[in-house]
Structures are given as C-alpha cells and as structure tokens.
Amino acid sequence: MSSPQQRLPRDQRRNQLVAVARSVFATRGYRTTSMDMIAEAAGVSKPVLYQHFDSKQDLYLALIDSSAAHLDSRLAEALESTDDPEEQIRATYRAYFDFVVSHREEFVIIFNSDVYETKAEQRLRALRESAASRVVAALQNYARLSDDEARLLCRALIGTAEVVVKQLDSQHGVDVDSAVSLLTQMSWGGLKSFGER
C-alpha cells in the first residue's frame, strides 16, 4: 500500500510538478510523454496533476515559459555585466554555454523539442526573438549598423553558438572554456571592424 501523498502548498506543488515534468519531457520527448507518466514520476494522482495544468500542452507551455525566462535573464545579465564590447561577447557566450551545460533539461525543452503544437512553436519563436533583440541592441550600441545588418550578424552569432553546442556534445576534445575563448576571439575579430567604420 502506498503512503498518503504529502500535501504541499499550491505553488510548491506546481513547482514540483514543473520540475518533474521538465525531466520527463527532456528525457522522453513531448510526443511520447503522457500525463500518466508525469503523475507517476511526481508521485501524485493524475487528478492532482490536472488541478494545476489543463492539458499536456498547458504543462509544456509552462515549461517553455519558465525555461525561457531563465535563459533570458542569464543573457540579460551577461550583456549588462560590462560596457566593454569584447567582454560582452565573452560573457554572453559564457552565459549561453553555462545554461546548456548546467541547465541541460531546460536547454532541451527550448532548443531540441519534438513538439509541433502551434502555441508551443509560437512561444519558442518569441523566445528566440527576445534573445535576438538583446544581441541586436548590443551590436547597434557598438557599431553603426542598420536593423537588417544587425539582425543578420545576430543570426550568424546565434547560429554559430548553436552549431558549437552540437559539436561539444559529439566531440569531447574541446571544453566549454575553450569554446568560449575561440568564439569570442573569432566574433570580436570580425565585429571590431564594424566599430572602425
């Protein structure tokens, strides 16, 4: 016979369910995860899960929102940590890679999700746009770039970082510190020429 469920305050229970669901979704993927699996992993009944989330999609959207807010705050802190453009680049790459390594499940939810739900895709697109707008603003603070130019450079920087993450996963000869240094050197080498125009 199982022991009775411990009653937690509503916010605490919701946070616990989000943490468990994040782990299950990150491991199994959106499409193969069920609310039954999450309830079982959390040690609660399915009705308890539905007291907090109307559906699997509702729960996943909550995960996207919390993960996105976390990443956005890390990037904002990095960009605001210094006025030196080269150090901003270094801090931003560091924040991104630290997030990937230290908050792997959140990273998977945001960047490697197998969800094709319209609302989820809209939230993920909004996250990417928010991150990009921070980088675009930083680029335009440093160099006289049009919006289109800054967005193009931003996409190149973000795309490079995403490719390097995949490389780090498959190639164990380069660590995060080396990746941050290499990308900073490459990015700063190119970007400083725009400041000289």
Automatic annotation (TrEMBL):
InterPro entries: DesT_TetR_C, DNA-bd_HTH_TetR-type_CS, Homeodomain-like_sf, HTH-type_TetR-like_transc_reg, HTH_TetR, Tet_transcr_reg_TetR-rel_C_sf. Residues 34-53 bind DNA. Residues 11-71 form the HTH tetR-type domain. The keyword Transcription regulation applies. Keywords: DNA-binding, Transcription, Transcription regulation. This is TetR/AcrR family transcriptional regulator.
